[in-house]
């Protein structure tokens, strides 16, 4: 089953579930009964997650204008160990 989107001139869009390839080019509006035309909807495409889109933008920007490191980044402090036995383990 796939969802097909139709639009009524008065009521707006609605979706109809039909087997793939069986949707008509027009359908009757479930609210007012007028004929609505089918809208194009890309199948099985989801929006790109924000984190992935941001990573792609940074990757594309680094092609033309890469960020250049001019120094050593500041040392980050380690969080305190949650288990006191961890403090007895050897450190690298
Ligand atoms: Zn309608």
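Sequence proposed for the structure above (92 residues):
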């Amino acid at each position: 089953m796939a969802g097909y989107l139709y639009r009524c001139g008065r009521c707006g869009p609605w979706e109809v579930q039909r087997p793939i390839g069986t949707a008509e080019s027009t359908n009757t509006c479930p609210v007012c009964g007028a004929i609505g035309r089918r809208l194009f909807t890309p199948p099985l495409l989801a929006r790109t997650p924000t984190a992935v889109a941001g990573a792609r933008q940074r990757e594309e920007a680094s092609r033309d204008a890469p960020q250049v490191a001019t120094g050593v980044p500041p040392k980050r402090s380690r969080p305190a160990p949650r288990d006191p036995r961890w403090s007895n383990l050897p450190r690298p």
